[in-house]
Amino acid sequence: MNTASRLLTTLILSLLCLSSLTRIAQAAESSQQHPPNIVIMFADDQGYGDIGVYGAKGYETPNLDRMAAEGARFTDFYVSSPVCSASRAALLTGCYHGRVGMHGAIGPSSPIGLSHDETTIAELLKQQGYATAMFGKWHLGRPENMLPTNHGFDEYLGIPYSNDMWPYHPGVRHLPMKERLKKWPHLPLIEGTTVINEKVSPDDQRQLTTLLTERAVDFINRNADHPFFLYVPQPMPHVPLYTSDKFEGKTEQGAYGDVIAEIDWSMGQILEALKTNGLDENTLVLYTSDNGPWLSYGNHAGSSGPLREGKGTCWEGGIRVPFLARWPGQIPPGLVVSEPAATIDLLPTIAAATEATLPKNKIDGHNILPLLTGKENAKSPHKALFFYYKNNQLQAMRSGKWKLIFPHTYRTLAGREGGTGGIPVNYENHQSELELYNLKQDIGETTNVADQYPEIVAKLTKMADEMRSDLGDSLTKSNPTGAREPASLQ
Q1: Cα separation of 86 and 139, whole Å?
Q2: Residues 489, 143: contact at Cβ < 8 Å?
Q3: 438 C-beta neighbours (distance < 10 Å), count
Q4: Which DSSP symbol is given to 269?
Q5: Helix residue ranges per DSSP H, 96-141
Q6: pLDDT per residue over 22-67, tens digit each?
């Protein structure tokens, strides 16, 4: 290469570098002129012990660990219910799932979904001029008029319900396809309200995390100059587990570790896109899970860490989940918060951060910005948190350090190992009593102290009765007076 060519090449590279720096500077300047962007990644069935900073073993989560190092990690963070649809409804509306009529995990043929009278985080932020997008699992209504673009999202790409609700489910895959389809229909991939893939295959699921991540990054790049809300409810690590070639077989933990490693990569791609566009300091990034691990799947399930039981129970392993928050300049780095909080708090917290108006309907969550930003002496805004499962049963509550379990039937492996290779083992049904636990001293709920503290039991029971008069309780046959109806085609 001669001198002139070298000079020309240097000039071109300098101009490209200057252009890139100018674009970042312009985006950063623009970002400071509008309210913060909001990013939520919501994993599916990821356990409390499934991130490095929460004690994960056999794989690494450097990007999620980075979120904790540069932001906040909550040790006592909860979902409304230990199951898919109910948990998602609570996160998006700021309400206990029973208040908005969304219980359990609705199936592909269910006629119900989230009511259009409810205000989602997306609708809240659209009123503030935000661009909104969702890439991932919806599970709040399959009918077309109940899909995300009818609940405040400008863009949607994903699956309408869980990735195991298809004819390759472990319980039916030994049958001929004709027989499988009597139990589960084909799983569709939907963009907006249009089905773009009628029959998602195992190979398609292997590329799902990458596909959703690429769309999330593209959305950030396209909306860097004005406020946006990005919701990424990952379909994984819900079974069946699938990863792309770049992560398959890469961890010591096997398929489950590979899946978590790819989700961690996904968060890394999103964080890098924010940095590239100069949006780091004006974006609140949140990461959590919809419930605890599906323990009956054994080596294809996650870990509850020190907690008792998992998904489908109101013991801590079913309802306490990891929660990370990052917002440079607003959230102190390395903050650890042990005050109880929950996904129902995200909507009112985001409203406070963006100066949005709260929904007209009653919500149950509270603004936890003081906890997130490390305000001195900040406390949980909740007198108590309540946990419903299985046909509107009030099974547990937490107030301060105390956890009260109400008599109910729950599922357990009773110390047995779970399944292998994606095939679950059966649970046993056990019966709980009226049980009290001091979670500060007994995180694993091993020692019932109800007899030692009858006054605490009486106090919490009174609070529970007040909740029963509001949202009901099928265990005590209490009728709800404050619950609202879901949307329905019937």
Answers
A1: 9
A2: yes
A3: 17
A4: H
A5: 121-126
A6: 544 444 454 456 899 999 999 999 999 999 999 999 999 999 999 9
